[in-house]
Amino acid sequence: MNPEKPLDVYLGLDVGSVSTKLAALDQDGGLLASLYSRTQGHPIAAIQKGLAEIRDRLPAGAAIRGVGTTGSARELAGVIVGADIVKNEITSQAVAALRHVPEARTIIEIGGQDSKIIILRDGVVVDFGMNTVCAAGTGSFLDHQALRLKMEIGEFGPRALRSRNPVRIAGRCTVFAESDMIHKQQMGHPVEDILYGLCQALVRNYLNNIGSGKEIRPPVVFQGGVAFNQGMVRALRESLETEIIVPPHHEVMGAIGAALIGLENARAAGNGTRFLGFGVVGKHYEAASFECPHCANHCEIARISSEGTSLACWGGRCDRWN
User: What's the whole-number mean pLDDT along residues 63-71?
Assistant: First the structure.
């Protein structure tokens, strides 16, 4: 009897400062397994833990045929797992969105630490904007406010939806927003009205900053962990006066996009994968950085090593260390 043909799997990793996401797709792009976890300041450990968990969720006989990485730590993740292709977050988010909503023309992505807007026309990215400086409106800020109000983050959205008279919150800065929320509480406004007022403020901040000058056309797709918050979905819908599409698995769309890119790359290249195997889960890695002395730029170079051997360097303006 011939052994059963192994199941071809394509893996995507989206590693950011707040969260680490993994997605495993079959050869048709269908989602086999996904994982969303906190990075907690230790991206290497988060990558290894994620690989171990996704391995256990894959069907028996699964064989990794292609790997893509994305996110702010995409280079690091690529070295650890042996990625076939490393892509930026804009491309990965767009590829995943178009897979689920082929006619999408605007992508709003709000994650744990940053926010993005991606403008699409005829399936092509024509413009984008990112905010990586101010945390107002991101998942970490909403987590903090939920904690301050002594509620689980999962309660935030449903309670915000119960608001009937939302109060106006100053949302241009996290410090001002929090101060204004405390002031409104002291005035006796219901928590529900304060929560939805905060959602409205954060949407105003997003549209006035990241969305400024962008031609936001429907269909509008809302991705990222913050899309779990139905208060934010409602506030976006009311501000833009259009339906907001929240795709399935919106919190891992970056990883899905990276996996789709890995799948297409494998089909185009046809020369196997560089994936190092799930054995990397048990390896010890060391991450460090140094300042390159070779020119006036003094670039900060990131380096990852294992067992005393330098595996890769990146981060310079030239290719000296690549």
Answer: 97
* Structural domain harbouring 14: 7-93+254-282
Same domain, 238 and 273: no
36 and 119 share one domain: no
Report the alpha-carbon distance of residue 103 to residue 255 in Å, rounded.
21
Tell whether 321 is covered by a domain. no
User: 112 and 37 share a domain?
Assistant: no
Q: What DSSP assignment string belongs to 278-291?
A: GGGGG---EEEEEE
Instruction: For residues 74 and 186, state if they share a domain.
Output: no
AA letter at 136: A
- Do 247 and 217 contact (CB within 8 A), yes or no? no
Long-range contact set of residues 239-246: C-beta below 8 Å, sequence gap at least 24: 239/200, 239/203, 239/204, 239/207, 240/207, 240/216, 242/218, 243/218, 243/219, 244/108, 244/220, 245/101, 245/104, 245/219, 245/220, 245/221, 246/221, 246/222
CA distance 162 to 166: 10
Domain end position, chosen among 222, 246, 270: 246
Per-residue pLDDT tens for 155-164?
Answer: 999 999 999 9
Structural domains in the chain (count): 2
The verdict on 163 and 109 lying in the same domain is: yes
Who has greater pLDDT, 169 or 258?
Answer: 258
Q: 81 in a domain, yes or no? A: yes
| 293 Cβ contact list (under 8 Å, min separation 6) | none
Give yes or no for a contact between 262 and 96, defined as CB atoms under 8 angstroms apart.
no
CA dihedral (103, 204, 214, 241) positive or negative: positive
Q: For position 201, what pLDDT does the model report?
A: 87
Structure tokens at 227: 């899309």
Say whether both 113 and 211 belong to one domain. yes
DSSP letter assigned to residue 80: H
Sheet (strand 19-25) strand order: 31-38, 19-25, 7-15, 62-70, 85-86
